[in-house]
Design brief:
78% helix; mainly alpha; 0% strand
């Protein structure tokens, strides 16, 4: 008497309503390499969850992908700025010490 359960098909146009934030996730992986992979994982989960009808899970994965993407882009930009400022300081000090 057991019947197989099949999830209801997603309503048309639902895929357009849940953004996956894959482009910012890829940018965050380029800015902050090891940590940016986390945002790519969440962004990749969105389309699969929408296709299976799990809209709440897709919205959650989309929200996490957006949050982690922006956090890691910020960390990457701050890290690169500190790197360049520190490098310019070292070059400036070496020029001053050679004078």
């Amino acid at each position: 008497m057991a019947q197989e359960w099949t999830p209801p098909p997603p309503s048309p146009g639902t895929h357009d309503k849940v953004p996956n934030y894959l482009i910012p996730a890829i940018i965050s992986a380029l800015c902050c390499f090891p940590l940016g992979i986390i945002s790519i994982i969440f962004a990749a989960q969105v389309n699969g969850k929408v296709a299976s009808g799990d809209i709440a899970g897709a919205m959650d994965a989309s929200k996490k992908a957006k949050m982690f993407s922006y956090i890691f882009i910020g960390l990457g930009v701050v890290g690169w700025l500190c790197y360049f400022i520190f490098g310019a300081g070292i070059v400036g000090l070496s020029i001053l010490s050679n004078s």
